[in-house]
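> call design_seq(struct)
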């Protein structure tokens, strides 16, 4: 997979990256998550599983890896893999996130799986935790699911701390969530450091065949030089062979016509966007990762793009459906 510049940063990434949300903890919302983990939640077994998927990602040429403090032991599993494989720091790009604290205590069901707080004490605690686990490998530190409601984009103490971390050499990013991703991103593009530079170097947002409302704002972020990462490109598993919902029959049909898989075609739809730098695979199984990376070989032509437009949902319906997905 070709390395290419990540926005106007000095980082390089590959068109496909690997996200560890489904690998680092027993419970997550993706369809069939429990099945993928084969209901084996022993920490050593889950670390070994993560290392197998990371090895497959590396072998497929993936060079961007995405974690978060709230993904259970994802940073620890990634850190132990980086050390065990002696990956040169300059041959990989690693991003993580702060702002959510993991509270599920290694359980699948919990009253609260994670607690969101975009405050200075949380940032100061979590940057130390992430650095302890990822060391010099950590390149990008992202606000986890920034929203207008969380108030983080007007929290001067937090913004000042992020500007200081940027000065120390970290790239600063934000991830988005919910039906107002576009509005939140446009507000973030107005945030500057004291010397008038944009604070944010990258943005991570949900964009897929069902939810495309952030597209225009992502194009503007790309134009402004930010690195653009797309998450949930498979709508938490809804755009995969696993989902037999008749509403998605067209995706399965077009995938068959192109002699590919629904997940690869859905990922190819994201790769075809001119403003995207990295689309994340959220695979927790080697065979799913290997199916996902075939997306780079697909010719996503205009006719296919037009036909699949019919799958688009309103953001409200999309995020309502997502919020109803069961932790499993
Ligand atoms: N707010 C945020 O910042 C935020 C939120 C969500 C996600 N993210 C990032 O984005 C990454 C990806 O998102 P995501 O994992 O939430 O969702 P996703 O990529 O939309 O969906 C991934 C799911 O699709 C399934 N899948 C993939 N290929 C498949 C195949 N060929 N057959 C059957 N199932 C298949 C995977 O199953 P298996 O598990 O079985 O492989 C996984 O459960 C995360 O890991 C994380 O890094 C960030």
């Amino acid at each position: 997979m070709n390395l290419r510049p990540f926005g106007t940063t000095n980082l390089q990434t590959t068109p496909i990256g690997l996200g560890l949300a489904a690998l680092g903890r027993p419970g997550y919302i993706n369809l069939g998550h429990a099945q993928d983990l084969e209901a084996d939640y022993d920490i050593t077994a889950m670390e070994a599983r993560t290392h197998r998927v990371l090895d497959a990602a590396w072998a497929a040429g993936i060079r961007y890896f995405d974690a978060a403090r709230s993904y259970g032991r994802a940073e620890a599993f990634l850190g132990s893999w980086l050390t065990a494989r002696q990956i040169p720091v300059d041959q990989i790009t690693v991003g993580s996130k702060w702002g959510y604290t993991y509270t599920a205590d290694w359980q699948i069901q919990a009253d609260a799986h994670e607690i969101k707080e975009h405050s200075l004490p949380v940032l100061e605690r979590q940057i130390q935790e992430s650095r302890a686990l990822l060391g010099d490998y950590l390149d990008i530190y992202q606000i986890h699911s920034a929203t207008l409601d969380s108030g983080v984009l007007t929290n001067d103490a937090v913004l000042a701390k992020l500007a200081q971390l940027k000065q120390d050499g970290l790239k600063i990013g934000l991830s988005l969530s919910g039906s107002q991703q576009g509005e939140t991103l446009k507000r973030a593009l107005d945030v500057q450091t004291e010397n008038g530079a944009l604070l944010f170097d990258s943005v991570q947002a949900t964009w897929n065949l069902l939810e495309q409302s952030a597209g225009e704002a992502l194009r503007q972020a790309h134009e402004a030089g930010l690195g653009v990462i797309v998450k949930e490109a498979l709508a938490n598993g809804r755009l995969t062979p696993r989902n037999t919902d008749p509403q998605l029959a067209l995706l399965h049909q077009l995938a068959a016509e192109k002699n590919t898989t629904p997940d690869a075609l859905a990922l190819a739809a994201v790769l075809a966007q001119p403003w995207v730098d990295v689309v994340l695979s959220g695979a927790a199984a080697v065979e799913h990762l290997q199916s996902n990376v075939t997306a780079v070989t697909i010719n996503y032509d205009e006719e296919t793009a037009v036909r699949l437009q019919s799958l688009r949902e309103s953001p409200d319906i999309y995020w309502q459906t997502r919020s109803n997905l069961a932790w499993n």
